[in-house]
Write a structure and sequence with these properties.
119 residues, alpha+beta, Nucleotidyltransferase, domain 5, 39% helix, globular
């Protein structure tokens, strides 16, 4: 019997494998959530480096009362999209990292789309 963390790792790997097949050189918007914070980054898989990173635990995110709710996820999505547009990135592939597309993950994705990212 596999543990929940092992099942999460399998889902994460399965999603990334499918994304690599369809991405055609686009950067990947990767999401991570914890009990206290929400993080998102845009990564270039060809060079294996992070282009843009934003989360609720940094200086601008400290202004939030709670870093693990839907409002915080919307804040992270909006700020990440603004930083990406400033670096010239307009189109990405969304990697939900094995999490359900629901709640914080969906709020982050919707806020990033409203701010101008296309995926």
């Amino acid at each position: 019997m596999l543990s929940s963390s092992q099942l999460h790792q399998r889902r994460k790997q399965r999603i990334r494998t499918k994304l690599h097949k369809i991405s055609t050189g686009l950067p990947r918007l990767c999401v991570h959530r914890t009990n206290l914070h929400t993080y998102a980054q845009i990564t270039d898989d060809s060079g294996s480096k992070s282009i843009v990173l934003f989360g609720t635990s940094g200086k601008p995110g400290n202004t939030l009362k709670n870093g693990s709710n839907i409002e915080a996820a919307k804040f992270v999505g909006k700020k990440l999209a603004e930083l990406a547009k400033a670096k010239g990135i307009e189109k990405v592939v969304f990697d939900r990292s094995g999490y359900l597309y629901h709640g914080r993950i969906k709020a982050l994705a919707d806020a990033a789309r409203e701010a101008g990212l296309k995926f």
